[in-house]
Amino acid sequence: MEFGSQGSSMDGALNVEITVSGEAQAADTQSVGLPDYLVKTYAWAYLRPANIVVLDNPFVVNAILWGNFRRLVCLACEEFAYGQRILQAASVYGDLSARLAETVGSAGHLDVVDIAPVQVEHCRRKLASYPQARVRVADAAAPGGGLYDGVCCFFLLHEVPDGHKRAVVDGLLNSVRPGGKIVFVDYHQPIALHPMRPVMQAVFRWLEPFANGLVRRQIEEFASARDEFSWSKSTYFGGLYQKVVAVRPLADPDVRAPASA
Q1: Which residues share a beta bridge with 161?
Q2: Is 45 exposed, middle or buried (0-12, 13-18, 19+ CB in 10 A)?
Q3: Which of 148, 179, 169 is nearest to 218 (CA)?
Q4: pTM, whole model, 2 decimals?
């Protein structure tokens, strides 16, 4: 999951209080199969239904990304095409999933996975009008579903511990067929004089404790088989955001399809 998400409507969404207390999070620990880091660090953002209503809001999401949400969604979607089979690695607040479903169209397929059942149900409701989309419970490190033409990983890596980043990157790369690509959109180290740099340092310190492990390295460094892919990177908004595209060459006899879901 990732915090840069929005809903389809702003009406009445901001009058619900976001709860981050320990008592509120304690109730979420009863969820079965959820990783400790998710429950302890992000339960308030992703596991409490009342807070989901607040956070899945276009105003909130765009504010979190300093007005760049729409641009970043477009940058992700432009990498995919009509008729493709696409995997989205984690439910995303906002209309990214709908935009991806529209991109692949009726001849394509969008598979969205998330490890939290509450997020899966929320995303299913949002994609109810897109028959080409499916949402299911799975870990991004082992998404299943076979091979895809493309994978979209949108603001997920900065929210998983460093030790799990490699597992996620490897799991997603192993899900791409020869000739396919994986697109990572996430935070990046901003330029030294970026006016938001001190603010983001505070955000990373207090709200995103795993983000520094991402921005201090290149995403391809987390890939065990990095040499099997062609990598490219672009940065935006003074370097605060990045898009990294990894393409698997067509001639790759060693590719192995993961077990289907």
Answers
A1: none
A2: buried
A3: 169
A4: 0.86
Q: How many CB atoms are located within 10 Å of the residue 159 CB?
A: 25
Contacts of 157 (CB under 8 A, 6+ apart): 165, 168, 169, 184, 186, 214, 219, 222
Residue with tokens 């290149």: 218
Give the closest residue to 156 by CA, choosing from 206, 102, 87: 87
Q: Which of 86, 221, 96, 219 is nearest to 143 (CA)?
A: 86
Give per-10-residue mean pLDDT for the chain (261 aa). Answer: 36 36 38 83 96 94 96 98 98 97 98 98 98 98 97 98 96 98 98 96 96 97 97 98 97 56 47
Distance CA 113, CA 88 (A): 6
Give the Å distances, CA to CA, from 128 to 113, 160, 197, 259, 261: 15, 28, 39, 26, 21
